[in-house]
Write a structure and sequence with these properties.
A hairpin with a 4-residue loop joins strand 1 and strand 2. The chain has a domain of about 70 residues: Alpha-Beta Plaits, CATH 3.30.70. The chain is built from four helices and two strands; from the N terminus they run ααββαα. A two-stranded antiparallel ribbon has the order 1-2. The model has no long low-confidence stretch (mean pLDDT about 95). By secondary structure, the protein is α+β, with helices and mostly antiparallel strands.
Length: about 100
């Protein structure tokens, strides 16, 4: 994901104040161990999480609350037409099971 220039502090603030109902929604959809990392040299964000059920995880974008969060965040990051964050797939080059 990509932050807009100069929005690092605001992004951190919004996540420090993340809505309790959003964290509950993520947990209800089987998400745990969710971290987002910032590369401050280029404003790139990298998120990693554990999802118990990929079907439940794939249903998150249809949640009105998830869409509301996306709308809240779209003024500080690159977004798609549906409001979701622009993401860039990464190629896995190593995994230790």
């Amino acid at each position: 994901m990509n932050l807009l220039p100069g929005k690092e502090v605001e992004y951190q603030k919004r996540h420090d104040e993340i809505w309790p109902e959003l964290t509950a929604l993520l947990r209800q959809h089987g998400i745990s161990n969710y971290s987002i990392f910032l590369d401050a040299t280029n404003a790139k964000l990298f998120g990693v999480l554990s999802a118990e059920d990929l079907v439940m995880f794939s249903q998150l974008p249809q949640s009105p609350l998830m869409q509301k969060w996306w709308q809240y965040m779209k003024d500080i990051m690159e977004t798609n037409a549906d409001g979701s964050p622009v993401t860039e797939p990464l190629k896995e080059v190593f995994h230790l099971p």
